[in-house]
Design goal:
single chain; alpha/beta; Rossmann fold; 7-stranded mixed β-sheet; 11 helices; globular; binds zinc ion
């Protein structure tokens, strides 16, 4: 490889790093609108917590939240349930969260919303949770149980006497899912465009207001959670605790997945669950 090629590659790498740093700094300043004391993360399998939710966990921790992971199966599809339960406990220790593993639901089988809701209901009696964090209906990877957990959490929250705020992790389209750190730049550009559009919308609304047509205000219910480089290292260390799952394609996942760097989460208030 010639000096010129090396110089071009170095310039490209520096430009990407610089763009990611600026984007991260901008997005980091966007604080969640709500501060939650106790957040319950409901997952389907040991390793979901660090493969998908790392940036959200860290962002909530920075704002002072205590987080508990309720994993609804031992991930016993290959008969490794007991081993994977221990791996989850080690991962949670690295992430600085506590965890409980349920063993009534079986990995890979369809879970009814009622069964998921019962498992959550049994657990939440002891602690008062302000918010429940979980998958959206696409479940990030499209795994059957991820979608089942989403449906079950929705079912539980809609019927609960206590109001819960739901935090649903957005599933990204395939190309964005494997955009790695560049997903931070993408969200930055999206955010800037959103600011421009909302200021345009606000001026339209102000004009409408002046003319007596509307008194609406612009509001957002989306939370962007970004990891610092040293925090991304913690997410990698947590993933390393799931040794039984570290097959070759998982290393590719760790290299290219946006979820090791950034999460976008939709915040749903109780009135939106009816
Ligand atoms: Zn999973």
């Amino acid at each position: 490889m010639g000096w010129f090629t090396l110089a071009v590659l170095g310039a490209v790498a520096y430009t990407v790093w610089y763009a990611v740093s600026i984007a991260r700094e901008y997005l980091r300043r966007e604080r969640p609108n709500n501060v939650f004391n106790n957040v319950l993360l409901v997952t389907a399998h040991p390793d979901d917590e660090c493969m998908f939710f790392g940036p959200t966990l860290r962002t909530l921790q920075r704002s002072g939240s205590h987080i508990h992971v309720l994993c609804l199966s031992t991930g016993n599809y290959d008969g490794l349930g007991a081993h994977r339960t221990k791996e989850l406990q080690a991962s949670c220790q690295v992430l600085g969260v506590t965890c409980t593993v349920e063993d009534t639901l079986q990995d890979g089988e369809k879970w009814d919303p009622e069964a998921v809701s019962d498992a959550i209901d049994e657990f939440v009696k002891e602690t008062k949770w302000d918010a429940i964090l979980t998958f959206d209906k696409f479940g990030v990877s499209g795994h059957l149980n991820h979608g089942n957990v989403h449906n079950g959490v929705r079912y539980f929250a809609a019927r609960s006497a206590r109001p819960y705020i739901l935090l649903e992790l957005e599933s990204a389209p395939l190309l964005l899912k494997y955009s790695g750190m560049m997903a931070i730049v993408y969200e930055y550009v999206q955010s800037l465009m959103g600011v421009m559009l909302s200021s345009q919308k606000e001026s339209v609304l102000n004009n409408q207001k002046k003319s007596g047509l509307s008194n609406q205000s612009v509001s957002s219910n989306r939370m962007v959670a970004v990891l610092e480089p040293n925090e991304a290292w913690t997410a990698y260390r947590a993933m390393a605790m799931h040794r039984s799952q570290l097959v070759w394609f998982r290393y590719l996942y760790l290299l290219f997945s946006r979820y090791m760097h950034i999460n976008t989460v939709v915040v749903r208030h109780p009135s939106q669950l009816m």
